[in-house]
């Protein structure tokens, strides 16, 4: 029996305690499916929070983490026209990718442009795609408009800045550390607010002027998310897509955004959530394909530049897990499966 290497979480818990490298049987593709020999998979913080039971879903355990991958098709099931053995592809909305081989429905894989690196391809369908959806389908940010965003130094934040340069909208970028300001400006950010020594609401008013900012995205939540909501102009829209401020919290009372009711009601603002997993599950096929295709084309053209990942052999997966949540860790840790 042929086998493969898989990183498996035996049970709910702290990743450093429950993850193991195991040998599992090689999966076989069924009708309408392909089997992919995985080259690289990113280790996201959301993967680790899923293992801890602090994310939007809890899988059945034991489970193989992972939400993205790039690899090469090595076997086809019946009824998979248009795909070939040896073709390099990425998986779309497929979970359980931290293993040497993955089986996916043919409709859930996408060929990779010839010039795109494995590092970029492996990361393109979580953070860059989120940035494209938020600035496009969700908020329709237009040329000349302001977009206020938190965690501007994150991968999504950097992608949003690059989209602003490409489309022509202005980005008002919130960061925690003064040391991050120059990097954001060098990337093309229009203006930066540093909460280390600046008041967010005051600076939004100073920078955006009397018309203010009507569109914002937030992945911090907590008090920062609430401050962003209050800083918006009347009729403003805030889309919340993450909760970085709550990731180490276990007290349910701390998992909040303390929205100021008077601002929300009397200025008729909108605050709503966005979660990529739900988008994959509920978005009509034509809209999903269009957003993914645009993201891939932007990355292939260089308009969206995904920071180079840090390849780590799967045997050293614990190093990748530690790196994923280390402060200022640099490029995304990528598990690679060497023969």
List keywords for this structure.
339 residues; alpha/beta; Rossmann fold; 2 domains; seven-stranded mixed β-sheet; six-stranded parallel β-sheet
What does this structure look like?
With 339 residues, the chain is an alpha/beta fold. It has 12 helices and 15 strands. The chain has helices at residues 15-18, 45-52, 118-123, 127-138, 155-167, 181-187, 200-208, 222-231, 261-266, 276-282, 285-301, 317-324, and strands at 3-9, 19-25, 33-42, 70-76, 88-91, 101-105, 109-111, 146-149, 170-175, 191-194, 215-218, 237-240, 270-273, 310-313, 333-336. Helix 9 (261-266) links the parallel strand 12 (237-240) and strand 13. The protein is globular, with a radius of gyration of 21 Å. Residues 14-335 form the Enoyl reductase (ER) domain. This is NADPH2:quinone reductase.
Write the layout of secondary structure elements.
Blueprint: E1 3-9, H1 15-18, E2 19-25, E3 33-42, H2 45-52, E4 70-76, E5 88-91, E6 101-105, E7 109-111, H3 118-123, H4 127-138, E8 146-149, H5 155-167, E9 170-175, H6 181-187, E10 191-194, H7 200-208, E11 215-218, H8 222-231, E12 237-240, H9 261-266, E13 270-273, H10 276-282, H11 285-301, E14 310-313, H12 317-324, E15 333-336
Parallel strand pairs: 8-9, 8-11, 9-10, 11-12, 12-13, 14-15
Antiparallel strand pairs: 1-2, 3-4, 3-6, 3-15, 4-5, 5-7
């Amino acid at each position: 029996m042929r086998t493969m290497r898989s990183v498996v979480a035996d049970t709910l818990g702290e990743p450093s305690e429950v993850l193991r490298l195991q040998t599992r049987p090689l999966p076989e593709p069924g009708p309408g499916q392909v089997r992919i020999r995985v080259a690289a998979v990113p280790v996201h913080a959301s993967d680790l929070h899923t293992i801890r039971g602090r994310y939007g879903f809890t899988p059945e355990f034991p489970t193989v983490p992972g939400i993205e991958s790039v690899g090469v098709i090595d076997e086809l099931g019946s009824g998979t026209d248009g795909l070939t053995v040896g073709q390099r592809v990425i998986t779309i909305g497929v979970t359980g990718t931290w293993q040497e081989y993955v089986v996916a429905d043919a409709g859930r894989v996408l060929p990779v442009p010839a010039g795109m690196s494995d590092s970029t391809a492996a990361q393109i369908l979580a953070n860059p795609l989120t940035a494209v959806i938020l600035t496009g389908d969700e908020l329709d940010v237009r040329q000349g408009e302001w977009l206020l965003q938190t965690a501007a130094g994150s991968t999504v934040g950097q992608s949003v800045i690059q989209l602003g340069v490409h489309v022509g909208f202005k980005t008002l970028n919130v960061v925690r550390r003064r040391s991050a300001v120059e990097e954001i400006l060098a990337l093309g950010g229009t203006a930066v607010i540093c909460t280390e020594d600046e008041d967010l609401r005051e600076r939004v008013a100073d920078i955006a002027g009397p018309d203010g900012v009507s569109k914002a995205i937030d992945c911090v939540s907590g008090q920062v998310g609430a401050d962003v909501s209050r800083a918006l102009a009347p009729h403003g829209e805030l889309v919340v897509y993450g909760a970085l401020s709550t990731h180490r919290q276990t007290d349910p009372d701390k998992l909040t955004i303390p929205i100021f009711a008077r601002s929300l009601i009397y200025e008729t603002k909108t605050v709503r959530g966005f979660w990529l997993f739900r988008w994959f599950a509920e978005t009509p096929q034509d809209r999903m394909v269009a957003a993914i295709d645009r993201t891939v084309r932007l990355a292939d053209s260089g308009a969206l530049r995904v920071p180079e990942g840090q390849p780590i052999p799967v045997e050293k997966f614990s190093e990748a897990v530690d790196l994923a949540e280390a402060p200022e860790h640099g490029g995304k840790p990528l598990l690679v499966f060497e023969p």
